[in-house]
Amino acid sequence: MLIQLNNSCQRSPDQTRLGAESDSLLNFVKKRIEEKKQYEEFRKKTLPRDFENKVQNYYPVIRKYSKRYGFDWRLIVMQILKESRFREDARSHVGAMGLMQIMPSTAMEIRREMDIEFIANNPRENIAAGIYHLYKQLQNFPDADRNNRLMLALAAYNCGVGRIYDAQKVARYLDLDPQTWDAVKICLPQLTRKYWRMHLEIWELGVPTYGYFYGYNQTISYVDDIIRNYHIFTSAFREY
Fold this sequence. Notes:
Elements: H1 2-9, H2 13-46, H3 51-69, H4 73-84, H5 104-114, H6 123-138, H7 146-159, H8 161-173, H9 181-187, H10 196-202, H11 216-236
Helix pairs in contact: 2-11, 3-6, 4-11, 6-7, 7-8, 7-11, 8-9
């Protein structure tokens, strides 16, 4: 009787398959519910009230230039959110302008390369210029893999590529991989005067090529916030 009882409890291959499919579906549903909850919390705490309207308004130009330069449009949305919170008249204390917070010197360069005139005053041109500028930063890190290349480009967009190059030199000195954001993130704070002894080992003049850098916290949070928010946003908006 004991052997017969054990045999009767065994599941057939079909039952096992159906059970696995049921568990998989249940886990998928649970994951989607958690993603929606996470997005709702994100929406309440982080997004401006007119966020959806702003995205719809600028979606055509964001999508157009994101596709042209190989970006996910949702990443650009999160970058604009971080840069200006979709305020068309945003101005920084250092003079950065518009939705994508483009510096005047950068705007002059982009005007020549893209043949657009009103980067400061035309929000759509500002978006186009910003996406193009991010694309240009990607070209500075050809040896990084796809994900790290994007994060390094975002960092360069925020603080200038020179700071990232200096951090990469520190990374090489410390035997870290200079083509990863994790290594650069560790090394950016070491571009301050506090590390002058190490600088003597790296640079002939004993100072980073692009000078000391004290804005590293802003750059680190800039990249990490955009990437984190991007993952939350894409989990809720898999398609537009």
